[in-house]
Each structure stands twice: as structure tokens, then as C-alpha cells.
Design a protein that fits this description.
843 residues; alpha+beta; 10-stranded mixed β-sheet; 6-stranded mixed beta barrel; 29 helices; 17% strand; transmembrane helix; FtsX-like permease family protein; membrane; cell membrane; ABC3_permease_C
Length: 843
């Protein structure tokens, strides 16, 4: 049978090409997704600026002793005294502190400042002038100096930590990562950044002859028990960019979701394509049964053909698969979804998993598709092939009903989820609904045909009536053609409106909370907290309040102990946190107290969202962690209401300002007094730039643009996933329609020989394609609706999803046009020959 299977390949070119394309593209996507998943597991970040130091010591961003690993969003600064202690370890030649801070040139853009010691870690080397040996001296990166038109001896104004300072350019330097960098003397860098006594990293150089790993082990022993970590190899990049620790782990669920969605689509596509290909060979299978072939032999025949095809397709997919994964990583990094410093690291595991998944999918689909022919009794074989009486099975019905139940359960979970989390439940729900309708497709399609057959047959006569009878007699074939249409249209509508609904929900929550007319920021990256009172006293100002956004954690009342271990310890509650000045908070935002008073937000206090303060009383001390890991106990002075999923804890800005990366206030919200024009107020506040260099005053559109940028990042990621998955489903749609049409040569030949014209055959195919498109689009809309309604209820409080209705129109029109176009083009190609010439074509 295996030998026969290989020989039959050349007699069914169309079906095998369609199956090959489905298997190849599916394997490429799965292998690429697997590579992305392994990259997230490794989370490797090769160093750039710190590449010269073999060992890097930095603050440990991990939140230890919790059930699930959490990462502090703000950089943990280290005691600068660690450098002297590490330098005394045997085998250490030098321990070099590294300090970085945001700054800006008064006549240029933002730059990153460092102490001169940091130049040794890159290394930077002087190309002109001298190192900054005293206060008031600065070294510029050569590329930066060229763009700004500066040279040694020139004077520049540097905006740093809310102040403007004058420096003389003592030299120019170049390095392997020569970018927007400036260097001050170490002591002055710590002073101007308000970081005296702390450092970001320490680069450790082993002495000549000392083994790097042995020195690293000695350093780890020294810092054991402190919130400090020792990095070597590719992990050193985490010290340059703490976002690798915080955001790099996001690549794992992202890749898993993307790969899982792709794998499920692959199962649908391959099963539909193989099923349709084998259904069209029912007569061949029937003839084999009548001459004595056993059911097992038929199964081996189909499995042998499919296995050979799958091995070739998946083998070829191993070449572009890793490249596709690398491309996906770059695309996510360009969009800002993951840090750019993460390196693609994928070995043989994604290849094995991708190939194995594709092979199992192909073999499973082929086995299921061959069951119908294998179960046929020899005496019924030819009638079975002609009439297609066995069009559904009890197993398929039961499995379809189970998927319906699973989809309903996920829909309930989606509706009950918080707005920002609802999409995480809705995405698998879409695939479960698609599986349910796919399994029950013959039943649904048969019902649709029964409803549509009579009106269709009355449209324009015999050709339309014949098309309706074909659809009724060949429900299985029609259902196989409908599934890719359902998948493409359902996923397109579902995923697009899922993103637009999430965007509308986030935008609505943002707009409802913002009441300020003017926003004050700084080119230097932040403003001193004292500027809020100065702004509040300006004419035309009704209210002003600082805003310092970050993330914090509610800790259990009982202290978290190392003995509890990562797997058994309690899980802190992560929540958004906003540092504010209480005066004017009610005029610049929509926050109001449900209990207590927001004016009491002074000193070590907190206003928690009401949902997080159910078991607490006003006046209780709440154990919390700030964004940089600092433990605090804050007095509960108020509770605030908030839209579910968008709740925020309010903390005095004075508590948070020293525990963020910048150490300053990023923005101050200002509301205009009654009768004051916001534009005139902006101009008035701009005069404060004399006291506060770098101050920028803009309208609220700046915050709206920032919100839109953040939303665009999520939207771009969603549309990338949409493009790949729906693109694959669309390819399967074209693939299947072409296969379903070109394999009907014999049928078209007979129609032409009995007098049907080419136009009549094309008219019949137009009606059949319309039925396929209509059924597929209706099923797709059912899948999308079952997914989007609970999501919209969770996010927007209404059953109607957010987004333009033109998206729905475009998807429906595209699916219909694509189905009709591919069917008619394929039918036209088959009908080019004369009927007499077609009589010699073998089935």
C-alpha cells in the first residue's frame, strides 16, 4: 500500500499541492513561534555599553519569595560602597562603578549622562582633548558633537535633574556604541543626578590569570543576602536595560499565545484541505473496496501519501521557520512590545516541536478523513461515493457540542473578567467557537442549504437549481469549502474588533479621568516637586497637581520570609500607582473619595481603590512595595472608585518621587480658572522657564498623544498577529476554493458534453461559490459575535463592540470577493478546453 500511495501522488497533483502549501506554511509559523518562545525562556541580552566588563554587578529587579515571578518596574540602585568591597576580593583587578542619568542639551535633544568611569566599560576612547578631570568639564560622544556642531573648548548648557548647568567641552570620545552620551567627572555626575552614594552597576575586571566564573562566584558570595545580582555572559545586557527583566518575560506568553493560535489554525486548515482532497477521491476509494481492499489498507494508503507529503513539507519548513521567528522578534522589538536588546536564541527544540506538530496534524487529519471510506462496505461502495450518504458521525457531533460548551464557559469568563484582562480569555474563546462550528459545519451548512436552496433555484433557472442540488447532495464537500471562509472572516472580524474594543475601553477610561487644561513637562526629563506650588500661585490657575505614574504592590499583612520559597510563598497584588499632590487633584482629575478624604494624602499615606480595600479600615497601615522594591507601610486615608480593571492607588508625590528612575515629577496637570483661556494660560506659564530651564507647557493633547502611542503599540502587536494568522487562513481559503473547483473536471466535462454552455457552468459555480461565501461568512460572524459580545460587555458595558462598522463591511466584502474570484478563475481555467478534448481526462 505504501508503494501504491507514492505512485498515486502524481495523479492528484491539485489536491497534494494544496495540502503541501497548507502543511509548509503552517510548519513555518509554528517553528517561528517556537523559536520566539525559546528566545523568551533564554531572555538573553548581549551587552553593548558594558561589553568590556566580563562581570557586571547590578540591582536585582526580581520580586523574590512569591508564587509567580514579579519584576520591579523601577531600577534598583546599589550602594556605591560595593565597588570598594568587590575590589578587595582576591582575583579582582578593578571594580568600576557605572552611573547613568537622563539629561538634555539646551540647544539640542535629550542625551544620557554618565560618570567618566563608565567610559572604561564600553570602552570609549578620547579622540580629541582630555577627560573631565574637574567640575564644569564635559566630554561628548563624537557623533553627538558632530550633529550639534561642537568641538573641544566650546561651552554648552546641560539640562539635568530640573536645573541648567554650564559646561566646557574638554574632549570628544568615540566608542562601539557612540550615541547620545555625555560624560562628567564621577563626583559631579553623582551630584547633579542627586545620586551621591549610589550607583547603577559595577563592572568587575578579573586579574590576569583569574577565571571569570570563579571571580563571579566569589562576588556572589560577598553580596549574598543583598538585593544585588551578579551577571556574566549574555545576561550582562540586563544591567544596561532593566526592561529586559521586566518586559523580556512577556515574550513567553506572547509567543505561546501566538504559537497556540497559529497551531489551532493550522489544524483547521490542514484538516479542511486534506479532508476535501480525500473526499474528492471517494470513487477511487470505492473502487478499491470493491476489488478487495480492506479498511486498514485504505487507511494506510491515505496515511502513506500524507506522511510522505508532510515529511517533505515540514522538512523544507525548517529553513525559513527560524528566520520567520527572528523576523517576528524584530517586529515586536520595533513596535516597542519587547526590549530591542533581547537576542534571538533558538536551538533544535522549536524545529522538533514544529515538525512534530505539523506531522501529527497531517496524520491525524488524514486518518479522520480516511475513516469514511474505510468504513464503507464493498456492496455500498459505489453508491456511497456517488450519493455521499455518510456525511456526519456521532463522535464529531459529541466533540462539536463539547466545544460549544467550552466556548460558552470561556464567554462567561470573558464577560466576568476585568476590562484589560478580558482579551486574554476572549482569544482562546474565538478558537474554541471556531472549532465548535467547524465540527458542526455539515449540520449547519445542511440547514443553510435547505433554507436557501429553493429561493436560489428560482433566481435564474436551471443552472442555479443545479447548483442548489449539488450543495444539498454534497454537504460534506461544501462544508470543507466553507470552513476556511469561516476561519478567515471570523478571525479577522473577531481579532480586529477585539483590539478596537480594548482601545476604546482604555481611551474612555483615560478621557473620563482627565480634567486638566494644560500639561507642564520638562526637556530634562522631569520637574522638581516644589514647582507645583509655584504654578498653583500663578494668575489664571485654578488647580495644579503633580503626577508620577508607576507600579506598586500590596503585600500580605504577614512578612514574606525567604523560607517560604518561590513556589509556596504568598502572591502580592500588583496595581497601578500614581504619585499626586492632593491640592487640586479633584480639579485636574476625576478621582474622588468613596470613603475618607483625598486632602489627607500627606506624609506616608495612601488612597486605595475600593475593590482593594474591602477588608481594611480607614487608619490601617497597609504594607506595600514601591516600584523600586522599597518596603513601606502607608496609612489608609481614603478609598477611591475606579472603572474595573483600570483602578489606581493614589500616593503623595513626596513618597514616590525618590523611588523612580528619574527622581523627578514627569508632569504637572493644570486647570484654568473660570474665564481663563487655556492657550493664554499656557503662554503665561511659559514665562516660568526663566526660573525652571527646559520647562515645556502644552495642552492636554500631549497626554492624549502619549495614550494613543501606548495604545498603538498594543494595536500594532495585535495586527501583526492578525496579519500572520488571518493571512494563513486566507491562503487556505484560496487554496481550498481552487482545489474544490479544479478537482471537478469530470463533472464539468459531462455537463459540457450533454449541451451545457461554458456560461451556464460558470453561472452554476457562481451560485455555489455564493453559497460557500454566505455560509462561511455567517458562521464566521457567529464565531466573532460569540467572542466579541462578552468582551464588549466587560470592557465597554455594552454588547456592541468598539470600532468602525466599515471594518465589518470590508471583511465581509473581501471574503465574498475572494471566494467568488478564486472559484470562477479556477473554473474558467478548467473550462478553457473543448468538450471533446476533455473526454480523455482521467478522473
Amino acid at each position: 500500500m505504501i508503494r501504491i500511495a507514492l505512485r498515486t501522488l502524481r495523479f492528484h497533483t491539485g489536491g497534494f499541492i494544496a495540502s503541501f502549501v497548507a502543511l509548509f506554511v503552517g510548519a513555518v509559523i509554528i517553528i517561528g513561534s517556537g523559536g520566539l518562545l525559546e528566545t523568551g525562556i533564554h531572555n538573553a541580552a548581549p551587552p553593548h555599553r558594558l561589553a568590556v566588563a566580563p562581570i557586571v554587578v547590578t540591582g536585582d529587579q526580581r520580586y523574590e519569595y512569591t508564587q509567580q515571578e514579579l519584576v520591579f518596574p523601577e531600577r534598583l540602585h546599589m550602594d556605591a560602597g560595593w565597588a570598594d568591597k568587590i575590589a578587595k576580593i582576591s582575583g579582582v583587578e578593578a571594580a568600576v562603578p557605572d552611573l547613568s542619568f537622563p539629561a538634555a542639551l539646551a540647544e539640542g535633544g535629550p542625551v544620557t549622562g554618565h560618570g567618566w568611569s563608565s567610559a572604561r566599560l564600553s570602552p570609549y576612547r578620547l579622540t580629541d582633548g582630555t577627560a573631565p578631570g574637574a567640575d564644569g568639564q564635559i566630554v561628548l560622544g563624537e557623533n553627538l558633537a558632530d550633529r550639534a556642531g561642537l568641538k573641544s573648548g566650546d561651552r554648552i548648557q546641560l539640562l539635568v535633574h530640573g536645573a541648567q548647568r554650564s559646561y566646557q567641552v574638554s574632549g570628544l570620545a568615540t566608542g562601539p556604541d557612540d550615541g547620545e552620551d555625555v560624560f562628567l567627572a564621577d563626583a559631579e555626575a553623582a551630584e547633579v543626578a542627586d545620586r551621591v552614594g549610589t550607583t547603577d552597576n559595577i563592572g568587575v575586571f578579573p586579574a590576569s590569570g583569574a577565571h571569570t566564573q570563579e571571580v563571579a562566584a566569589a562576588v556572589r558570595e560577598l553580596v549574598d543576602g543583598s538585593p544585588v545580582t551578579v551577571l556574566t555572559g549574555d545576561n550582562r545586557g540586563r544591567a544596561e536595560d532593566p526592561d529586559v527583566v521586566a518586559d523580556g518575560s512577556d515574550l513567553i506568553p506572547l509567543a505561546a499565545a501566538f504559537g497556540g493560535l497559529s497551531a489551532m489554525v493550522t489544524v483547521f486548515v490542514v484538516a479542511s484541505t486534506l479532508g476535501l482532497s480525500i473526499q474528492q477521491r471517494q470513487r477511487e476509494m470505492a473502487l478499491l473496496r470493491t476489488i478487495g481492499a480492506t479498511p486498514g489498507q485504505l487507511r494506510r494508503l491515505v496515511l502513506g501519501e500524507t506522511l510522505f507529503l508532510a515529511i517533505v513539507a515540514t522538512g523544507l519548513a525548517t529553513f525559513p521557520g527560524p528566520r520567520f521567528g527572528h523576523w517576528l522578534l524584530n517586529a515586536f522589538a520595533d513596535a516597542g512590545v519587547v526590549p530591542e536588546s533581547i537576542a534571538y536564541r533558538a536551538g533544535s527544540v522549536p524545529l522538533i516541536v514544529g515538525v512534530g506538530t505539523a506531522l501529527l496534524t497531517a496524520i491525524g487529519s488524514a486518518y479522520i478523513a480516511a475513516q469514511s471510506a474505510a468504513r464503507t462496505r464493498p456492496t455500498e461502495a459505489l453508491a456511497e461515493a456517488t450519493l455521499q450518504r455518510r456525511w456526519f458521525s456521532a463522535f464529531r457531533l459529541i466533540l462539536g457540542l463539547l466545544c460549544l460548551a467550552g466556548g460558552a464557559a470561556l464567554a462567561w469568563g470573558t464577560a466576568g473578567s476585568a476590562g484589560p484582562d478580558a482579551a486574554g480569555v476572549a482569544t482562546p474563546a474565538a478558537m474554541v467557537w471556531a472549532a465548535a462550528f467547524g465540527l458542526l459545519g455539515p449540520v449547519v451548512v445542511r440547514a443553510m442549504v435547505a433554507v436557501l436552496r429553493r429561493p436560489v433555484s428560482k433566481v435564474s433557472g436551471l443552472a442555479d437549481e443545479l447548483a442548489a442540488h449539488n450543495a444539498r447532495a454534497r454537504t460534506g464537500r461544501l462544508a470543507s469549502a466553507v470552513m476556511p471562509v469561516m476561519l478567515a472572516s471570523g478571525l479577522a472580524v473577531g481579532l480586529i474588533y477585539m483590539q478596537t474594543t480594548q482601545s476604546d475601553g482604555a481611551q474612555r477610561a483615560f478621557d473620563e479621568n482627565l480634567r486638566a487644561d494644560v500639561v507642564v513637562t520638562s526637556a530634562s526629563g522631569g520637574l522638581p516637586l516644589g514647582l507645583v506650588d509655584m504654578i498653583r500661585r500663578q494668575p489664571g490657575v485654578a488647580a495644579a497637581s503633580a503626577q508620577i505614574p508607576t507600579t506598586g504592590y500590596l503585600e500580605p499583612d504577614e512578612p514574606m520570609r525567604p523560607s517560604e520559597g518561590e513556589d509556596t510563598g504568598p502572591q502580592p497584588t500588583e496595581l497601578s500607582m500614581l504619585g499626586v499632590t492632593p491640592q487640586g487633584l479633584d480639579r485636574t482629575t476625576a478621582y474622588h473619595a468613596a470613603a475618607g478624604s483625598l486632602t489627607a494624602l500627606n506624609g506616608d499615606s495612601v488612597a486605595l481603590p475600593a475593590t482593594y480595600a474591602k477588608d481594611r479600615e480607614l487608619g490601617d497601615l497597609v504594607p506595600m512595595r514601591l516600584g523600586d522594591g522599597t518596603r513601606v507601610r502607608l496609612k489608609l486615608v481614603a478609598t477611591v472608585d475606579g472603572k474595573r480593571g483600570y483602578e489606581t492607588a493614589l500616593v503623595p508625590a513626596s513618597v514616590l518621587v525618590g523611588h523612580t528612575d528619574g527622581g523627578l515629577v514627569p508632569q504637572i496637570l493644570v486647570s484654568a480658572a473660570a474665564g481663563t483661556d487655556p492657550a493664554r494660560l499656557s503662554a503665561s506659564l511659559s514665562t516660568l522657564a526663566k526660573e525652571q530651564p527646559g520647562l515645556q507647557v502644552t495642552g492636554r493633547e500631549v497626554l492624549e498623544a502619549a495614550q494613543a502611542d501606548a495604545d498603538d503599540t498594543q494595536a500594532w502587536m495585535a495586527y501583526l498577529v492578525l496579519g500572520v494568522v488571518v493571512g494563513y487562513a486566507t491562503l487556505a481559503l484560496v487554496n481550498t476554493q481552487v482545489l474544490a473547483t479544479t478537482e471537478r473536471r469530470k463533472e464539468f466535462m459531462l455537463q459540457r458534453l450533454i449541451g451545457a454552455t461554458r456560461r451556464q457552468v460558470l453561472q452554476m459555480m457562481t451560485v455555489e461559490a455564493s453559497l460557500v461565501a454566505l455560509a462561511g461568512i455567517i458562521l464566521g460572524l457567529l464565531v466573532a459575535g460569540a467572542t466579541l459580545v462578552p468582551l464588549s460587555i466587560s470592557v465597554l458595558g455594552t454588547a456592541l463592540p468598539g470600532g468602525s462598522p466599515w471594518v465589518l463591511v470590508a471583511v465581509v466584502a473581501g471574503a465574498a470577493a475572494l471566494t467568488l474570484a478564486t472559484t470562477l478563475l479556477a473554473a474558467g481555467a478548467v473550462l478553457r478546453g473543448r468538450p471533446g478534448d476533455m473526454a480523455g481526462i482521467e478522473e
